[in-house]
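re: the backbone from monday

yeah here it is again, tokenized this time
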């Protein structure tokens, strides 16, 4: 059964076990794109076991008949175990990894005196067979085979005949194996599963609605057993990792195959080798199609994925496959003391999955300790956190696997609860989660093992019932978390991307004191849907006093609603559990519950609809869980004095630097300009450059006064749109300052509420009427309906009865007018319009011109960017001309046009033409051209008044003397000069 393999060298991959990720450097934590993953595991540097640890590589046969496989294993044997048998630990890797993924952690445990067995699960690495997703008939049976093997080793301590003293640990895929293994094989003495699932069904088809049994725990998350919202991106990544056929699989089909990275073959990064040329004639077409379509997955799993991906629905057949691989149904069998480690930055397996495991195992009287840490599938833990977790796992096994009297037996780790100290930081970002230097330790996990229920604080939420649009096909969709890359909001200043009109928002009052949320808050909503069903996504934002929004960990709670009221006047009350988080909401901040209709990570309804969402009547509270505990530093704190000395030195250096630069820094601090109300917009030395070196705007400075209509002119690439995007807070300048009414402009700045804009497209929902589009847009701002001035905006649109027709039946000009009316909702003090007359006919252009002039006459300010120079000339009072990112002219229209130019001259007596031309050409810098209409004099160095005076003094009778220079002429001259 246990025979040597041909593996000739040992390769150290990235750490996998006690650095809690799945599979090596977690393919699922760095999966986007998959091509990146492919390079990670191949480039692992070589390593060797310590001198006092020897390794044995072997292929182990498991299973029988068609399901027989060979498992590629490595056994780590410490020298001390040769004389005195030691406990054993089986390390299981994450999905997409192999035995190499946990090699470093195996060495650490072996050096601490454990016999450690690592192996590649069937379908991964050099092991043969197909992936069964921890099916008890296959992967869990393989674990029992490995326990049989350990029981035969003289170096392994036994609890009885054929019963090794053994612990099992692993992350994600390996963590589920540890749980299922302990449930199906009672020889397992202790387990340490990490960032793993309780129910694969609820993880991939979540729906966080309804009541939760035993809700005294902090992160209890309900799950509708019959329905859920398909987590399509994560599921697709799972299947993508396992869809490449291995050499072992192809070899079993008679199609050839090679080794993996262990023996020098070129691997694709997840343990699957590059396959040599296939010979389709060597196998029947059906088998070949299955191998190429399903890769390493068993056929039933492949078919379940294909059905879910095609329909986005949870069918009984799909549920049966996922439930078979879920510990949820067998937690009552687990008697092995369990250390549950779960990450707070995890959109795949959230804190609710660990909560359900803790409740289920503790209900059987089994000791359970729960540890949350800053990291997960969306972001790696910091080195400090990783060191602490490695010590936690080793300490758990030291106590539960070593016998009384063993000098290596550690102290009782207890059954408490640990979590990272809450901070106000939100998105996880790509890479490592920094910080987490403190851990909060509580005596017990609330709600289990005799501990009382979690304490909850109730906060009143306010906001009207709001319409929420779900667009046809689910596009565009909100962006919260990109699987494996954490919260996208970190790249956007902490805010996720919500689509106007697609969400409802409800706010608490600003907090008097900081609130630390540890777990999953709950709220009750009132929902109605025309079809009786709805797909929604609930999330809890942290809103700073300045308006900046942060979505903790980028997490959202999907809601699959059926049987809800179709009458908005009598909505259905829905109990909702928001995502489990660890976050500190500072004093002065606001908690905002947002309920949206889309999220790009999930499957969405194809049909368009408008839902009604509000806070349930009589239950306006948001209940947030809180946990008290003692703060302690994490691993590595024994060297605190060294760190303190370094910190003191840095502080002293910083103090000196601060003294030198303090005055300059204070001048850069945002302040309110005293003339802000008189100068609605000011650019001061603004520059925007991109990483490729392109400078879109360079040292741009100008100001706009109240009551002006300013035209922003320039050829394509002049920097006009970039300037407007910086003004609106969509992008940040590299240098300089933009102020609106004296306040610094930037993403989320409160002063932006005084700005109305129409830039780069209308953004209207085609299936809604113009009136409904205006209503939805205003509802998305969260401001009272009475402040919208809806009637005035509809009058601006000038559509008559067409305002109540679907926008899809509008012409381009009609859409343009509705979009401008939308920008004017609330009568903003500063109105910014980009190409407002596109698609309008001449009468409409004339009407729009009058609207803008009248609007500015009320004391408000208008900015217009347009390529129709004649319209700028007739509409605007002032002009800023740009070229190549720089301002080349600024002034009133008259000032820009009146500089030099030409005049058209008509004479009473045509016989005087030659004499008039001679008089004019005698003036400095004047040239004269004869045309059918008369004379055209180009005046350079001579004013129009002086030229006219010269003709009159010479007795030439002038019938017409009109400027020929237009704004277009001035613009072309200025741009040419630049």
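seq for it, each position gets an aa:
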């Amino acid at each position: 059964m246990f025979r040597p393999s041909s593996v000739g060298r040992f390769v150290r991959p990235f750490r996998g076990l006690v650095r809690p990720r799945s599979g090596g450097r977690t393919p699922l934590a760095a999966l986007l794109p998959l091509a990146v993953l492919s390079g990670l595991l191949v480039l692992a540097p070589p390593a060797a076991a310590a001198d006092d640890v020897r390794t044995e590589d072997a292929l182990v046969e498991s299973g029988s008949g068609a399901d027989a496989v060979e498992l590629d294993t490595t056994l780590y044997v410490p020298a001390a175990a040769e004389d005195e048998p030691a406990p054993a630990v089986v390390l299981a890797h994450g999905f997409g990894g192999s035995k190499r993924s946990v090699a470093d952690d195996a060495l650490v445990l072996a050096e601490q005196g454990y016999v450690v067995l690592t192996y590649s699960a069937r379908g991964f690495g050099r092991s043969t067979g197909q992936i069964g997703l921890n099916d008890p008939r296959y992967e869990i049976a393989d674990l029992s085979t490995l326990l049989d093997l350990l029981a035969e080793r003289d170096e392994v301590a036994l609890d009885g005949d054929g019963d090794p003293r053994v612990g099992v640990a692993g992350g994600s895929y390996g963590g589920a194996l540890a749980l299922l293994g302990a449930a199906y094989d009672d020889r397992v003495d202790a387990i340490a599963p990490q960032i793993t699932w309780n129910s694969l069904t609820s993880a991939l088809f979540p729906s966080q609605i309804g009541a939760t049994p035993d809700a005294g725990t902090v992160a209890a998350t309900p799950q509708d057993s019959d329905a859920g919202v398909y987590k399509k991106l994560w599921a697709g990544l799972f299947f993508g990792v396992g869809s490449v056929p291995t050499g072992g699989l192809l070899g079993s089909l008679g199609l050839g195959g090679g080794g993996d990275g262990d023996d020098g073959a070129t691997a694709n990064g997840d343990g699957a080798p590059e396959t040599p040329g296939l010979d389709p004639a060597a196998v029947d077409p059906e088998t070949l199609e299955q191998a190429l379509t399903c890769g390493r997955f068993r056929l039933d799993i492949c078919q379940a994925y294909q059905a879910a991906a095609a329909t986005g629905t949870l069918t009984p057949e799909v549920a049966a496959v996922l439930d078979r691989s879920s510990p949820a149904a067998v937690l009552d069998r687990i008697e092995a003391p369990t250390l549950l480690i779960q990450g707070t930055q995890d959109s795949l397996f959230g804190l609710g999955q660990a909560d359900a495991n803790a409740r289920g195992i503790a209900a059987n009287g089994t000791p359970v300790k729960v540890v949350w840490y800053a990291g997960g599938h969306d972001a790696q833990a910091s080195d400090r956190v990783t060191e602490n977790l490695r010590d936690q796992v080793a300490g758990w096994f030291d106590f539960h696997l070593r016998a009384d009297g063993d000098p290596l037996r550690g102290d009782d780790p207890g059954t408490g609860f640990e979590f990272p100290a809450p901070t106000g930081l939100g998105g996880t970002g790509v890479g490592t989660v920094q910080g987490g230097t403190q851990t909060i330790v509580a005596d017990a996990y609330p709600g289990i093992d005799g501990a009382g229920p979690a304490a909850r604080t109730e906060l009143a939420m306010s906001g009207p019932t709001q319409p929420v649009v779900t667009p046809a096909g689910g596009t565009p969709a909100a962006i919260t978390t990109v699987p494996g890359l954490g919260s996208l909001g970190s790249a956007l200043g902490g805010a996720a991307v919500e689509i106007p009109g697609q969400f409802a928002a409800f706010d608490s009052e600003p907090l008097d004191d900081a609130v630390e949320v540890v777990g999953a808050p709950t709220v009750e909503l009132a929902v109605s849907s025309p079809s009786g069903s709805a797909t929604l996504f609930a999330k809890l934002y942290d809103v700073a006093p300045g308006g900046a929004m942060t979505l903790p960990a980028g997490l959202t709670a999907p809601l699959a609603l059926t049987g809800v009221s179709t009458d908005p006047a009598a909505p259905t009350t829905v109990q909702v559990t928001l995502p489990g988080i660890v976050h500190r909401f500072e004093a002065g901040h606001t908690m905002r519950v947002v309920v949206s209709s889309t999220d790009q990570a999930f499957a969405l309804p194809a049909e368009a609809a408008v839902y009604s969402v509000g806070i349930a009547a009589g239950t306006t509270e948001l209940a947030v869980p809180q946990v008290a505990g003692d703060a302690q530093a994490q691993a590595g704190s024994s060297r605190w004095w060294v760190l303190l000395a370094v910190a003191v030195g840095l502080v002293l250096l910083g103090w000196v630097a601060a003294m030198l630069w303090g005055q300059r820094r204070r001048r850069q601090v945002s302040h309110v300009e005293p003339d802000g109300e008189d100068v609605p917009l000011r650019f001061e030395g603004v520059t925007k450059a991109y990483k490729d070196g392109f400078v879109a705007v360079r040292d741009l400075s100008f100001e706009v006064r109240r009551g002006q209509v300013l035209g922003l002119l320039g050829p394509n690439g002049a920097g006009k749109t970039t300037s407007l995007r910086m003004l609106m807070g969509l992008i940040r300048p590299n240098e300089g300052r933009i102020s609106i009414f004296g306040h610094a402009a930037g993403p989320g700045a409160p002063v932006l509420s005084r700005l109305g804009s129409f830039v780069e497209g209308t953004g209207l929902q085609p299936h809604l009427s113009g009136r409904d589009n205006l209503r939805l847009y205003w509802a998305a701002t969260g401001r009272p309906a009475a402040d919208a001035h809806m009637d005035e905006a509809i009058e601006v649109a000038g559509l008559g009865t067409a305002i109540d027709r679907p926008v899809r039946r509008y012409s381009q000009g009609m859409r343009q007018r509705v979009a401008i009316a939308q920008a004017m909702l609330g009568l903003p003090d500063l109105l910014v319009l980009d190409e407002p007359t596109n698609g309008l006919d001449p009468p409409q252009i004339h009407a729009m011109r009058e609207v803008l002039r009248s609007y500015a006459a009320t004391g408000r300010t208008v900015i217009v960017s347009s390529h129709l120079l004649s319209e700028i000339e007739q509409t605007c009072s002032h002009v800023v001309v740009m070229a190549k990112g720089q301002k080349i002219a600024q002034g009133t229209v008259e000032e820009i046009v009146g500089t030099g130019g030409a005049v058209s001259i008509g004479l009473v007596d045509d016989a005087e033409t030659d004499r008039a031309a001679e008089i004019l050409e005698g003036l400095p810098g004047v040239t004269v051209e004869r045309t059918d209409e008369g004379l055209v004099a180009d005046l350079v160095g001579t004013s129009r008044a002086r030229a006219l005076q010269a003709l009159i003094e010479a007795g030439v009778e002038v019938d017409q003397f009109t400027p020929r220079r237009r704004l277009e002429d001035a613009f072309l001259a200025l741009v040419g000069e630049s």
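The chain has a mean pLDDT of 81. The radius of gyration is 35 Å.
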